[in-house]
Amino acid sequence: MPPREPPAPPRSGAPRLRRTIFYIVRDPLPPTRPDLLTLFGAELPRHDIVAELVGQGRAGGLAALFAPLQDALGLLRAARRARPDCIQVRDKIGSGLVGRLAALLFGVPFVYWMSFPIVEGYAVRRDDLRRQGARLAWLGHALRAVTARFVLYRLLLPAAHHVFVQSDAMADWLAAKGVPRARMTAVPMGVDGALLARAAIAPSRDARLDGRRVLLYLGRVARARQSGFLLDVAARLRVDVPDMLLVIAGDAPSRDEMAWMRAEIAERGLGQQVLLTGWLPQRAALGYAVRAEVGLSPIPRGTLFDVSSPTKLVEYLALGIPSVANDIPDQALVIAESGAGLCVPMQADAFAAAARRLLGDAALAAACSQRGPAYVNSHRSYATLGQLVADTYARILPDRAAWAARNRA
Fold it and tell me: What own/partner pairs with CB < 8 Å and gap ≥ 24 does 34-37 have?
């Protein structure tokens, strides 16, 4: 299927004003995630939108407990440097209340950015602890989940002037919970086109790839991500593609998880068919990527992941790698719109068959490879997404005088 025309972003028709956003973020500062670093650090300033990031240098433990107080102090420090046009909060619950109150005090709109169903994540953790029999920890997470659900869905989202979400699927999901669809904008994960320009990436010289039909998984390894599925696919492919090699370029969240994955590879006798690299610098990982013939992007189905917008599939397409992805909504959309890969259920036989098809059909693989970069450039580059977000701000943020008059009326 050839690429479709990109959707037209909302436009205000009015000349741009310089906007300053006080942005409370969950990620440790300074940011490393491209949707913060590239989108808000590089792209939006080109549209005269400046973000004052507020957050902590580390997350978890006591830092998380005191985060709302620290974020309140961070807003006060930011206010010494600039006057905000809105207060925006990303994926925080307690600090969301701080942000809502600050918006009232500053007399500006309150905006929420939801990149992950954080409340449902708390519920999953609660249920895991219950199965483990950790009663005290279960009670704490149960209370956290209940409180967070009330605050997010009763106090924050209904009060938000606008809600940015991770995907169209997340927007539909929240609309079913009562958030007006017209007050939401989907901003999926994107990529830096210059960083992923294939011609600028030096292919890996790892001799273990020589003479092999290389498949790639670029990302984290974890039981929660069902990473053993990749080995199931490799076991099926080696039967009739004996020279295949699955490169898993990524690390695990802990040494235990990495040890588990290495043990799984050994137990299945896949030591000659699977190369687990561990952590790599980004350029080194991309060097492995450009030697791959097929990229794999299996994402488990369920509440947490069905509303997500995975980056790895978009990265494969930007690099011109024909890809196999499963049918979570955002991946299904990307494959359907781009025509740059195959979308199948997350079943080992289906993934192996799709990968086998791309390895065996040179014309299909070449067409997918050609379509991917063009689609990403027009739909999922941060330059394109920056325009979308900037146009949304231009549409939803009135000038300060008009906002003040509206709230006095």
Answer: 34/190, 34/191, 34/192, 34/311, 34/382, 35/115, 35/187, 35/189, 35/190, 35/382
Question: pLDDT tens, 67-123?
Answer: 999 999 999 999 999 999 999 999 999 999 999 999 999 999 999 999 999 999 888
Position 241 confidence tier, pLDDT thresholds 50, 70, 90: very high
CATH number of the structural domain spanning residue 182: 3.40.50.2000
Q: Is the pLDDT of residue 6 over 70?
A: no
| DSSP tag of 268 | T
CB 250 within 8 A of CB 217: yes
- Residue 211 CA, chain-centre distance (Å), reads 34
Residue 361: CB atoms within 10 Å:
13
Only one residue has tokens 């436009």, namely 11
- Starting from the edge strand earliest in sequence, which strands make up the sheet with 19-24, in order? 49-54, 19-24, 86-90, 110-114, 162-165, 184-186
- DSSP-based three-state secondary structure for 233: helix
325 phi/psi in degrees, rounded to 5: -135, 155
Measured between alpha carbons, how far is 37 from 41 in angstroms, rounded to an integer? Answer: 5
**Strand positions, DSSP E, 137-252:** 162-165, 184-186, 213-218, 244-249
Residue 14 is assigned to a structural domain of this protein: no
Residues 74 and 208 in one domain: no
Instruction: Quickly tell me which residue has 């017209």 as its tokens.
Output: 182
Give a yes or no: residue 2 inside a domain.
no
- Number of domains, the chain: 2
pLDDT attached to residue 4: 41
Distance CA 8, CA 391 (A): 11
For 342, the enclosing helix (H) or strand (E) is strand 341-344
Are both 119 and 158 inside the same structural domain?
Answer: yes
| Residue 222 and residue 282 in one domain | yes
**Structure tokens that stand for 389 in this block:** 């977000």
